[in-house]
Amino acid sequence: MKITPLSTVLTLAFSLSLTLPAHATNTFEQGRVLQSANHFAVLSQRDRIAPENAMLNTRLNQLLPALMAEQDLDMWLVINREKAEDPVYFTLVPQPSFAARRTTMLVFYKQADGSIEKLTVNRYPLGAPYTSAWQGGSLDEQWQALGKLIVSKNPKRIGINMSADWPVADGLTASLHQKLMQVMPDDWHTRLVSAEKLVVRWLEQRTTEELAVYPHIVSLARGVIAEGFSSKVITPGVTTTDDVAWYLRERFSQLQLPAWFMPYVSLQRPGTPCLEDTPFCGESGIIQRGDILHTDVGICYLKLCTDTQEMAYVLNADETAAPKGLQAALAKGNTWQDILTSQFKTGATGNQILAATQQKARNAKIISSTYSHPLGFFGHAPGPTIGMWDNQGPTPVQGDWPLYANTAYAIEGNIKHALPEWQNQLVHIKLEQSAYFDGKKVVYLAGRQTEWHLVR
After folding, report:
1. What's the CA gap between 27 and 261, in Å, rounded?
2. What angle do CA 138, 140, 143 make, to 5 degrees?
3. Signal sequence span per UniProt (predicted)?
4. Which CATH architecture has domain 72-194?
């Protein structure tokens, strides 16, 4: 399918509100400073339906045929029940949809011309873009109708969502699988194959329409962080890290932007335990002047999710900028980002990217930890795992997944830096920015942090 160059999309998206401030002096590419989420529109729940369904139609009509051909599948079955929905189900059905009512059966059949026939075998029809192959009747009649439909199409390879390694591709329950076997001819059982690779590709692949809105979504997340890391929210000596975390949570709620995990805020100051082998340095408490702050937030909007970590510094009364040591620490973090993203090459596995990043970071004498992951319909989406915070070695299966073009990632990890102003105590710079790989380079969807948030 045709993908509009991301550079064109980003130029349009950022030209008005995401330009670098005139005083910026950093030399790192794609640094952007945001001030507030108020600079970005948020659609009402009702107004989100049309664009979400338009993006779904593009995926079903243009992306799915290519992916089913890529995986050599003639049919794909997504069968689930209310209160036990398949993880991939809500990425396939039109909005508004809150459940798989009773037993819901989706049937995708590859036709002779390569297009995909989208069918349902449900008591309750879904409507466009699906055609109802059967509706009404008893549950037993529904299963019999599914069996007859499958036989009438005569597919050679039928993908079902069963996987030992990918949770998102393991949505077909044991009882539903057993029932499916019962309504198919016995000599057809060998036609059933795992659809795990199709599911991963479906979830990780981004379209032109999604890339047009993704920068806006990430900007909302970064804009709320900027509000939280400001004097609007923080009064040094009074405000706690939990106060800031709850501001972020409640601000997202106010904007009707669901957080997919509770925002996290921590602080570092002289005396905070931080050794080279400490996984995460930081503590909670009352925020004081001279503190370093860190947050981790993730939201979903228009079905797409973000994952963002940024750093702030609380100025002392006689300061107008972060100490030089902290500026050097953030620059080292940006250097680590550049090392990581320079390893992104189509076809390289997550484990290969991790090993190359670690070697180059060691050569640059950077104490770092890399644990980046794909983004999309889930905050922790399927695709190539590039390290884990508790495993800096190869990750079986997920780490062996290759990098594809037109996929999105959380560029996540951290570095440690000896801070002269704190008697060379190690400080932990934890960074995470949402980005996109266009097949040649990594582009940050809403820029990245190259300057400290300053609380005055």
Report:
1. 33
2. 115
3. 1-24
4. 3-Layer(aba) Sandwich (3.40)
**pLDDT tens readout for residues 210-250:** 999 999 999 999 999 999 999 999 999 999 999 999 999 99
The superfamily CATH assigns to domain 6-44+207-455 is: Creatinase/methionine aminopeptidase superfamily (3.90.230.10)
Geometric angle at alpha carbon 207, from 203 and 414, rounded to 5°: 65
Identify the H or E element spanning 348.
Answer: none
Integer Cα distance of 228 and 225 in angstroms:
5
Token reading at 139: 């549950």
Residue 153: count of CB within 10 angstroms of its CB: 17
Instruction: Kindly report the pTM of this predicted structure.
Output: 0.91
From residue 370, give the alpha-carbon distance in Å to each of 299, 353, 444: 22, 10, 17
Q: Would you give the distance in Å from CA 363 to the centre of its chain?
A: 30
C-alpha–C-alpha distance, residues 413 and 431, integer Å: 6
Please say whether the dihedral angle defined by the alpha carbons of residues 19, 21, 26 and 31, taken in this order, is positive or negative.
Answer: negative
